[in-house]
Amino acid sequence: MSREATNGVPCGARVLTLDTMNPNVRRVEYAVRGPIVQRAVQIEKELREGVKKPFTEVIKANIGDAHAMGQRPITFFRQVLALCSYPELLEDNKFPEDAKKRARRILDACGGHSLGAYSASQGIECIRQDVARYIERRDGGISSNPDNIYLSTGASDAIVTILKMLVCGEGRDRTGVMISIPQYPLYSAALADLGAVQISYYLEEESCWSLNVTELRRALNEAKQHCKPRVLCIINPGNPTGQVQSRQCIEDVIRFAKEEHLFLMADEVYQDNVYADGCKFHSFKKVLFEMGPEFSSKVEMASFHSTSKCYMGECGFRGGYMEVINMDPQVKAQLTKLVSVRLCPPVPGQALLDLVVNPPQPDEPSYSTFMKERKAVLADLAEKARLTEEIFNTVPGITCNPVQGAMYTFPRIALPQKAIDKAKEQGLVPDMFYCMRLLEEEGICLVPGSGFGQKEGTFHFRMTILPPTEKLKVVLQKIRDFHLKFTQEFS
Ligand SMILES: Cc1ncc(COP(=O)(O)O)c(C=O)c1O
C-alpha cells in the first residue's frame, strides 16, 4: 500500500503536474515562438548534422527581431554602452567626446557609478526626465511629467503590469479587456494568464485593417452580458497587420473610451516605423490633449514604447517605458509598489533607452553618422514594405494589404477545400498545415494567422519584412512558388 504524505498525496508523486499546475498558465499560447518555430530549430540542427533537405538554411521571418536578421546596431548607442560597461575605455581616444560625455552622465546617475547596480524601481530619474522631454518634443510641446514615466523590461513587462493592475472580479464581474483581432499574442497570453475575459474586436481587412467604432461597440455590447469591460488595447502602428491609424480614428477611439468608461492602453512600440505616403504616426497622448480638457483631464491611459523596434531593433537589451495619464494617485502608489517588488528593469536597457530618447544633437560629433544610420535603416524597411506588398499581390490566391508601418505583413491566403480537409485529418488548423509544409519544403519559417486570430473561414500568415533585401526577394519568390505548387496539389 502506498504511503501518503500528510497532505493526502501519495509519497513519491510529483507536487507539480499538468493537473495540479496553475490552469491559467496551461491556457497561455504564444504563436510567435510556437510549434512552427520549434520545428524550425530542429530542422536547423538536422542541417548542421548533415541531413539532406531541399534547402541549405532556414530563414526565420517569424519574429520582429531585427538584429537576428542581420541589422547592424547604431554606432553611437553601442559606443556609449561599451563605455558604460567598461569605464576604463573613457581614456581611449577612439571614442568620440559626445559618447564619453553621455556615458559619464549615465554612470553618474547609477549607484556606485556602475551599470551593475540596481536602480530605482521606477527607473533612473534623469532617464525618466529625458523620456518626458522626448515625449514633449514628439507631441509638439504637450507637457509630460517624469513622475508619470515608468521604465520597464521592454514594453511587454509594462503591458503585463498594467493589465495586472486592472484585472479583478469574479464571474460576470470579471474584467473584460478589448483587444484587436488579429492581435499581437502577448495580449491574449497575458489575459489567459491573469484569468481576464478577452473581448475581441475585429479589424477590417477590406479597408487596410482599419478599426471602426461600430465594431468596437458591437464587441463591447456583446461582452457586457458576461463580463465587466474596463480596458481597451490598441496597437498602432499595428502588429501583425501593419496598418497606421488615422488621426480621426484615434479621436473616435478616445471618444468611445470616455463614453464607455474604459482605460486605454496604447501600444506604440512601432512609432518610428511608418512607411506609406499619406500615413503619419499620431500618438494617443497628443490626440487626447488636442481634444481638450473634457477628454485630457478624464480619460485614463497608459502608452508604451520600447528599444526593441523602430530603427534601433535592440530587443535583447529589454529597454522600454510607459507613461500613465490621469491615474488616480493612490493607484499610482500601488503601481510603484508593484514594480518595486521586481527591484528594477535592466540598467543597460535603461541606458540604451536614454540614448534613444536623447540622441546626438546637430552640434555634436556623432550626429551625422547617427542620422545616416537611422535614415538608412528606415529607408531600407520602407523599401522592403513596398516590395513585399508588390510581390505578394502578383500571386494568384494571395492578397496583401499595404504595409503602412511596423515590421510585418499579414497576407490572406486562399486555401483549397482539399487542403483544409487534409489539415483537419492531421489535426492541424489549415494555416498551420500550410506553414508547416512551407517550412519543410522551402525552409521558410512564418507564423500561421490562427496564432493572431482571424475572421472565421479566412486564412493568413504573418511574415516579417526584416530579412536583408536580397534575401527577402528570395523568400518572396519561394513563397510564391510554394503557394502555386500547394494550390495545384490540392485543387
Ligand atoms: C505590438 C507589440 N507590443 C509589444 C511588444 C513587446 O516588445 P518588447 O517587450 O521587446 O519591448 C512587441 C514585440 O514584438 C510588439 O510587437
From TrEMBL:
GO MF annotation, one: pyridoxal phosphate binding
One Pfam match: Aminotran_1_2
Cofactor(s), names only, from the UniProt record: pyridoxal 5'-phosphate
Pathway involvement of the protein, from the record: Amino-acid degradation; L-alanine degradation via transaminase pathway; pyruvate from L-alanine: step 1/1
Keyword match Nucleus: no
GO CC term (a single one): cytoplasm
GO terms (BP aspect): L-alanine catabolic process
Class in the EC hierarchy, top level: transferase
EC number of the protein: 2.6.1.2
Alphabetized InterPro entries for the sequence: ALAT1/2-like, Aminotransferase_I/II_large, PyrdxlP-dep_Trfase, PyrdxlP-dep_Trfase_major, PyrdxlP-dep_Trfase_small
Domain named Aminotransferase class I/classII large: residues: 80-479
Quaternary structure and interacting proteins, as annotated: Homodimer.
Annotated family: Belongs to the class-I pyridoxal-phosphate-dependent aminotransferase family. Alanine aminotransferase subfamily.
Protein's recorded name: alanine transaminase
